[in-house]
Amino acid sequence: MVCPKCHADQPDGAIECVPCGIIFARAKLDAAIPPGSIPAPVSAEAIEADDPALGESQSALDLFLPRETQVPPLYLAGRALLYIGLLVWSWQFIAAPLEGNYAGESFLHNINLPFHEAGHVVFRPLGRFLTVLGGTIGQLLIPLICAYALLVHTRDAFGASVGLWWVAENFMDIAPYVNDARAGELMLVGGVTGKDVEGYHDWENILTSLGWLQYDHRIAHAVQQLGIVLMLFALLWGGAVLYRQFTTLRNPKNV
User: Is there a contact between 224 and 172 (Cβ–Cβ < 8 Å)?
Assistant: First the structure.
């Protein structure tokens, strides 16, 4: 073995040269990297292989807050207009009192209603309790499936945030129905109220079966508050996605 710097003979297994003091491992590394060169960027796969937890956290961030390499301006403008519309409309949902049934009077109620009725049919083989509860499950499950599909399968984080907003709106749509369990005054499908037909009101049946009928107002307000929290989270998420896309449009080289 010969020192690459002073060419002095070295014993086998030597780490550094005694005459000139050069460290052989460092000399090999310096020789492998040309002067002025920049090391190649570390790939996400390499990061994940080196630290799986760091790789998973980076993957989750890219899933929920992607930084797209190319964002068409018209595409971003359309999303921004939709976001502004949801932002304004959300204030109407959040500010409206539960007893006013604002969600039940909106046009979205007529969109949610078929999924509610389909839920009764889908869950019918599972017994009476789940048949009645299936209506509520159905109208929550459909927007949740939409949000999942948009996030995982199409990688559309903004679309998924709108799907989550729809889930939140359904909670607000359900809350007045829960609140009406004892009163039975809301007009139901078929043009009758809970007072008109015994056992026709979903949440009267559900809460009676659980022995919680006297807590209908408390449960309704809890459902309403859950909807508000989810709606605010969906708006924050959608806004963050749009902000990242806007910065990409402004500075595409920084992606």
Answer: yes
170 CB neighbour count, 10 Å cutoff: 28
Task: Please name the amino acid found at residue 109.
Answer: H
Rounded to an integer, what distance in angstroms lies between the CA atom of residue 16 and that of residue 246? 54
Name which of 35, 82, 206, 232 is nearest 194 in CA terms.
206
Question: 3-state DSSP helix/strand/coil percent for the chain, to nearest 5?
Answer: 70, 0, 30
CB atoms within 10 A of CB 8: 13
Instruction: Kindly tell me the burial class for residue 36, based on how many C-beta atoms sit within 10 Å of its own C-beta (0-12, 13-18, 19 or more).
Output: exposed
Q: Residue 70 is encoded by which pair of tokens?
A: 């190319």
Each residue of 15-42: pLDDT tens digit? Answer: 777 777 677 666 665 565 555 554 454 4
Spatial contact of 177 and 202, defined as CB atoms under 8 Å apart: yes
